[in-house]
Design goal:
The complex is a heterodimer of chains A (115) and B (112). Chain A is an all-beta fold. Chain A has one domain (4-114): Immunoglobulins (Immunoglobulin-like). Helices cover 0% and strands 50% of the residues of chain A. Chain B has a single domain (4-111), classed as Immunoglobulins (Immunoglobulin-like, Sandwich), CATH 2.60.40. In chain B, the strands form 2 sheets. In chain B, strands 2, 4, 5, 9, 10 and 11 form a 6-stranded mixed sheet that branches. A 5-stranded antiparallel sheet of chain B has the order 1-3-8-7-6, with no helix packed on it. Classes of the chains: A mainly beta (115), B mainly beta (112). The interface between A and B is medium-sized, with 27 and 28 residues.
């Protein structure tokens, strides 16, 4: 039972490079989210999706793009990486029926370093 | 817009109690509590809906004061396994589409 899987788990980039983080869930959840975690800042919402083909901005969307072409996948893209984007990125999902009354299921995180 | 948690960190001896507070400047529809152990993903603890409902999870319980837009997490007779960072998440309305905004976290260390 995989749950929420993030790929890759670790990545080092140079400033200006681009990359994509992949999040896959096998629970048939409608809602998916991308958060970043930095020391002292907690979890900050980057973008989220309320269903296949839809995306919306969270608290800190600048410098990131997302796509939800398939219900089970949520991609987070960095077009031109900056050192300020060094962080641990968490993907999460939740079912439509429990999005407001239940839990988010998180992936294990992806540690990104931008030099 | 991010909820504010206090204290930022707390150190306990096994068996002691602790309270973690979460305050919002905006009206809340619900408050969610998560715990994250070092190097792991956050894990759901409980949710409190508008209405001041108090919930419990083993020896961990929480309350939600609508008037003050504040939630408190109570850890009773703490165990070593309670160590970790606790996050509160705030949902401002039912129509927010699951836009859960988290506080900065409270680091709890339980010592033998």
């Amino acid at each position: 039972n995989a749950g929420v899987t993030q790929t890759p788990k670790f990545r080092v980039l140079k400033t200006g490079q681009s990359m994509t983080l992949l999040c896959a869930q096998d629970m048939n959840h409608e809602y998916m989210y991308w958060y970043r975690q930095d020391p002292g800042m907690g979890l900050r919402l980057i973008h989220y999706s309320v269903g296949e083909g839809t995306t919306a901005k969270g608290e800190v969307p600048d410098g990131y793009n997302v796509s939800r072409l398939k219900k089970q996948n949520f991609l987070l893209g960095l077009e031109s990486a900056a050192p300020s984007q060094t962080s641990v990125y968490f993907c999460a999902s939740s079912s439509r029926s429990t999005v407001n009354t239940g839990e988010l299921f998180f992936g294990e995180g992806s540690r990104l370093t931008v030099l | 817009q991010q909820p504010v948690q206090s204290p930022q960190a707390v150190i306990l001896r096994e068996g002691e109690d602790a309270v973690i507070n979460c305050s919002s400047s905006k009206a809340l529809y619900s408050v969610h509590w998560y715990r994250q152990k070092h190097g792991e993903a956050p894990v759901f603890l409980m949710i409190l809906l508008k209405g001041g409902e108090q919930k419990g999870h083993e020896k961990i319980s929480a309350s939600f004061n609508e008037k003050k837009q504040q939630s408190s997490l109570y850890l009773t007779a703490s165990q070593l396994s309670y160590s970790g960072t606790y996050f509160c998440g705030a949902l401002l309305s039912y129509n927010q589409g699951g836009k859960l905004i988290f506080g900065q976290g409270t680091e709890l260390s339980v010592k033998p």
